[in-house]
Amino acid sequence: MGSMKQLGFHQENRLAMLSWIRITRFQQIGNHISNEFLQPFCITVAQFDVLIQVMAHQPLSQQELAEYLSISGGGVSHMVKRLEKLGLIVRKQDWKVKYISLTEKGQALLEEIIPLLSDFQTSMFDILDDQELQQLYKTMRKLHQYNLKKKSANPRIRVEEE
Q1: CATH tag, 12-126
Q2: pTM above 0.85, yes or no
């Protein structure tokens, strides 16, 4: 593999690009080990995210769920079918729209998983002291707010402020 310059990156972008790569790798590794953590519960991080969105906004249509997750309707459809087979969500037809809600089993699973996964995922930051963690949060929040102002090239992507 060549240097960043040989790959077409500009020297003035080097630090930002390396930071982007580190953020992406942190997320990928975090998702991988979180998937391993969730394996005994028979769900993935992506499915957990679906369940959390359903819990927060239920009942909601599949289209609304796709917008909250910023993924395609087809991707949501596949996950919804899997979670429905597991008995974690239910879809109810109301005229032309199917609305998704958690089942009692889905609600119970989330009540069990949320505190465990929260502790597990926050442990990924144990290497940081309080000051470093506060600075990281401040920096990530600043980046988040800055990028919320950017227009998405895809108008279907729903950007929500925290």
Answers
A1: 1.10.10.10
A2: no
